[in-house]
């Protein structure tokens, strides 16, 4: 029985909108890790090939398969077993550096596997509201059809409201009965004052906002029961709502004189400019949904008993509901071009009989077992006919700090930015221009709405003729294009400097991310601040969440969490660059460390008639990979090729990272050649200079090997850090100190002689000096791009 209840509960959970709009997270693996895996496979093939060659040169004498396995064990240092450990420790260090960066406070690294991805990004997919904008709404415009009020004329609205309620305060009745003659003759044109009053009252009533009063005295539960006798002081009141748009509207009605002072499940109270309290009983509420794009409320005026149905919503949803007018569509477009978020407000007066009829049908529909949602929606839609259009509101969502320079920096870094938003096309286009996602001089191609394959084909052909222009496309048109012409559309869109997708659902956002990954093979990054961005963040190669007003869903689901959009510039240009460059150098050096000692083993075996005898045994092999070389090699995680200020000043340097030149088969082969050269020099040099006992060969070659490794780290480092110097001398000190008790490997009397010192020095110089000369010549005649800036 319990199990059945749990299964039913899980079934209902899976059918909720939030769950259906999310997807299961994937295990993210960085591109650098995949590249290192390929190189490790190549090293494994080299190990097998070298072992087979040695057995072949032996002539397959005796039990050759036994010798084959012995050679596999002898050359096993070719496989960099410590690579994974060093890289994981390095990733942890990068995460710690990011979180300790004072220039991006509040940044949290929630993954320890993909910090290098920050340096390889080609596509950045961003949400609009709360990501590029602050999600702090400010009321900017009220349009009544014949007259429009902006921020500079709000005082006129306030005076109209004051006059309207002061005239009615002389009567003992509410303001509504004075307008009853207009209800019986709706064709009579209302005065501007009356229309303003109706519009403001509708905005003050049609919402899901609750005023909250903080307890000054600190007595718990004091405000919970103080409803009628509550001190309605402005400084003690805050508004709570699921949408910042609604809070902005209610705050605006307060600023013009009509204040929401109390609300519970059954009623709400408004305070007039004169201090009079108006009570309205809430009869029904129809909450906002992404499908209906509108919300409604039915209220009864306590004083007059009049029942009114108020509704507000998006213009595309409300245009078919309100009475015919010739200005709504045009003014919505005008406001959207100014970057304002628009809401249409309408009302309908109901008689007692009409409401009772509606209530009985509505309750019956809610009790239906089959198609309940459809039946409830049908009953509500029966009311949504020929509603009186009251006003059009415009709310501005301000841009976040430094969004424009950050987007410009990312664009100069070669990152293509796609904005995916649920807002309407005009608003999204305006924000794209105001944020400089699309430059003022750049052409914008608005993809016309398409519903069929033929229309999509024609529109794609028209778009194909455009060059270097930003693309703006709606979610519906995008769905049609991807259904019939997926490859063609993605190919054309990827050529655009910027793409804006409006009216996108959360699942569409994730689908777009996967399309870019599949068709381009490039690394993608998604950034958002709300629960509707979680699917996109989890689908991207690198997900970044912003802690905003919509909660921490995106922040907790992301790989990296930041507090402001502008922090993404430093996160990518500085930390992304350093993480990738350092891991590439660290990975290749660990491989070099294994290759060089394997080369020495191969030379040693070749000289002694391909004998499968180890060159170094016991503690020497353990110490080589740990205390003798570990600290200097790991100190490469502190290296940087350019200063952070320079990386931010010249974001063009980031373009080189996306080409993957720091770690490729070319650089890998260079390190292989270096390892073969140095291993050969060290071993042949020691064999040429050894005197009579084999122990001298071990002492000379191993000491020269340790010195060569320390010098090679110094050769690789581009910017010295004091910890690097400490690591070099600490390793050298550990080695010198260990010579005293490694009597079974070293002849203490011999290693203290001048002969030992000059032989080791000679071999080390021959193995390292040519590489230093080559590095100097390369920097002189073919310097990398960053060195031109630092010189």
Give an overview of the whole structure.
The strands form three sheets. The protein has a nine-stranded mixed sheet, sandwiched between helices. It has a nine-stranded antiparallel sheet with strand order 4-3-13-12-11-10-9-8-7. The protein has a two-stranded antiparallel ribbon with strand order 5-6. By secondary structure, the chain is α/β, with parallel strands linked by helices. The chain has 33 helices and 20 strands. The radius of gyration is 36 Å and the shape is elongated. 52% of the residues lie in helices and 15% in strands.
Number of helices: 33
Per DSSP E runs of 2 or more residues, the count of β-strands stands at 20
What would the average pLDDT be, to the nearest integer?
Answer: 86
Largest sheet: 9 strands, mixed
Quaternary status? single chain
User: What is the CA-CA span between the terminal residues?
Assistant: 76 Å
Give the overall silhouette: elongated
Strand-pairing-aware structural class: alpha/beta
Helical amount: 40-55%
Main-sheet strand order equals 1-20-19-18-2-14-17-16-15
Q: What does the radius of gyration come to? A: 36 Å
Strand content bin: 15-25%
Unreliable residue stretches: 1-11, 172-188, 218-229
